């Protein structure tokens, strides 16, 4: 931006052709006498201002993404920076380099210009304009554009995101197992539940961890074990865990069962500190729930089943939900037997309950006043209690799961079998 000041004297501007002044803001003329404008042929015309042509430069080609070593990548990680190169139609000026715009289109959606990135444009030695861009929107594919006037499909590059990763954290197992590996997965996790969870996240990439400890271990100890495990793996750059989780920058979903819940949350606390993108966390029948907290409350879900003989013992003196849990669903065992705890790591209907808990919307329908008569305790007369029931309709349920109890955004809802609706109590 420049400024010209005339202190005194006359100023004459003479040109044999056109003379144009463009401004993105105001043009002001001040005079102590008159402001005179003359048009010899067609007078003085006042029209809507035209946009100034900033450059005639065009982009003919885009290349990328390239990693930090200059290698062209066929897939990229989330929130990880990669270099893109735009080839101009001629050598750009320094100002033209900074004028180049970039945009993305995710999963065949709308082209969106990336604001604030143009100042990062650099001119490389081979005459190409380069920039580093990270994709931080959940998508499977994206397209990157470089342009001066308008983004064009013919001058863009298609980018595929690296496949997501599911980390399964198991509960108690009655024999020794490695902390990471894929040799014993089906011995703990049921194939049905794994299949539907992989379909949900659209991936075949899995990692299995043992988060149990021994049968009498405490949740707080397992939380610390999970935290230490992730810290150790972060330091070990040769480990499979480091490559899959820290280096590749995958979108990650963590599924825990029983005593693995505390270990999983300890691990998550470290992953978040190290910048790992965690998409969802699902705790199935977690144990020792009062001894650890949710790390990502807006992305974490808990599913329990009734009845559950294991948690009836393990959580006898604990809260029903993990501390800080905003999304909780209690379902009934459709088989009505004593194996509920086992089903929450094996059966499709358990995963369906998670999907319904994630999507369900509860819409207020009406209020009803209820009266309940309480018998005398022998020390006084019988009493009547008055309370208000707020009744809700449901929306967006995929699998028609019926929850005995729901926590949604921290609010409690209960299911009435006669009305077949959910309600809250004042």
Reported by name, the CATH topology of the domain at 165-359 is Rossmann fold
Beta-strand proportion: 25-35%
What global shape is seen? Answer: extended
Work out the helicity level. 10-25%
Q: H/E order of the elements?
A: EEEHEEEEEEEEHHEHHEHEEHEHHEEEEE
Quaternary status of these chains? single chain
Radius of gyration: 32 Å
Low-confidence stretches: none
Mean pLDDT over the residues: 87
Number of helices: 9
CATH class of the domain at 165-359: Alpha Beta
* E-strand count: 21
The CATH architecture of the domain at 165-359 is 3-Layer(aba) Sandwich
Organism: Flavobacterium columnare
InterPro entries: AB_hydrolase_fold (IPR029058)
Protein name: Alpha/beta hydrolase
Explain this structure.
- By secondary structure, this protein is an alpha/beta fold.
- Among the domains are: 59-161, Immunoglobulin-like (Sandwich), CATH 2.60.40; 165-359, Rossmann fold (3-Layer(aba) Sandwich).
- Helices cover 19% and strands 31% of the residues.
- It has helices spanning 94-99, 185-188, 191-201, 219-235, 240-247, 260-273, 309-314, 340-343, 348-359; strands at residues 59-66, 75-76, 81-88, 101-106, 112-113, 122-123, 129-134, 141-147, 156-161, 165-170, 180-181, 206-210, 252-257, 278-284, 300-306, 327-332, 361-374, 383-395, 403-408, 411-416, 421-425.
- The protein has a twelve-stranded mixed beta sheet with strand order 11-12-10-13-14-15-16-19-20-21-18-17, with helices on both faces. A five-stranded mixed beta sheet has the order 2-9-8-4-5, with no helix packed on it.
- The two termini are 63 Å apart.
- The model has no long low-confidence stretch (mean pLDDT 87).
- InterPro entries: AB_hydrolase_fold (IPR029058).
- This is Alpha/beta hydrolase.
- It comes from Flavobacterium columnare.
């Amino acid at each position: 931006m420049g400024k010209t000041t005339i202190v005194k004297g006359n100023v004459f501007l003479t040109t044999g052709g056109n003379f144009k002044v463009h401004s993105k803001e105001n043009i002001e003329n001040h005079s102590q006498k008159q402001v005179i404008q003359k048009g010899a042929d067609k007078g003085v015309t006042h029209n809507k201002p035209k946009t100034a042509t900033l450059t005639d430069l065009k982009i003919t080609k885009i290349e990328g993404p390239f990693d930090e070593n200059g290698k062209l990548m066929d897939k990229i990680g989330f929130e990880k920076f990669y270099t893109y190169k735009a080839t101009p139609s001629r050598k750009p000026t320094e100002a033209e380099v900074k004028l180049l715009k970039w945009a993305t289109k995710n999963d065949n959606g709308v082209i969106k210009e990336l604001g604030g990135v143009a100042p990062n444009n650099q001119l490389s030695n081979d005459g190409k304009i380069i920039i580093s861009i990270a994709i931080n929107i959940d998508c499977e594919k994206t397209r990157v554009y470089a342009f001066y006037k308008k983004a064009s499909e013919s001058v863009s590059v298609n980018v595929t995101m690296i496949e997501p990763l599911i980390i399964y954290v198991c509960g108690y197992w009655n024999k020794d197992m490695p902390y990471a590996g894929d040799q014993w997965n089906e011995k703990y996790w049921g194939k049905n539940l794994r299949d539907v969870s992989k379909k949900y996240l659209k991936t075949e990439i899995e990692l299995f961890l043992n988060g149990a400890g021994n049968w009498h271990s405490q949740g707080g100890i397992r939380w610390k074990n999970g935290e230490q495990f992730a810290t150790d793996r972060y330091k070990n750059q040769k480990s499979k865990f480091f490559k899959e989780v820290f280096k590749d920058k995958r979108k990650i979903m963590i599924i825990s069962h029983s005593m693995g819940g505390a270990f999983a949350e300890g691990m998550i606390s470290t992953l978040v500190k190290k910048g790992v993108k965690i998409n969802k966390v699902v705790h199935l029948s977690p144990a020792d729930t009062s001894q650890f907290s949710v790390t990502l409350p807006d992305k974490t879900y808990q599913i329990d089943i009734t009845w559950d003989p294991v948690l009836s013992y393990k959580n006898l003196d604990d809260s029903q939900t993990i501390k800080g849990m905003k999304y909780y669903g209690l379902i009934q065992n459709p088989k009505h037997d004593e194996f509920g705890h086992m089903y929450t790591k094996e059966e499709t209907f358990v995963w369906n309950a998670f999907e319904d808990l994630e999507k369900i919307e509860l819409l207020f329908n009406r209020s009803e006043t209820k009266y309940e008569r309480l018998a005398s305790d022998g020390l006084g007369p019988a009493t009547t209690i008055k309370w208000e029931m707020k009744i809700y309709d449901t929306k967006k349920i995929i699998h028609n799961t019926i929850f005995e109890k729901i926590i949604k955004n921290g609010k409690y809802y209960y299911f009435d079998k006669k009305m077949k609706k959910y309600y809250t109590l004042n």
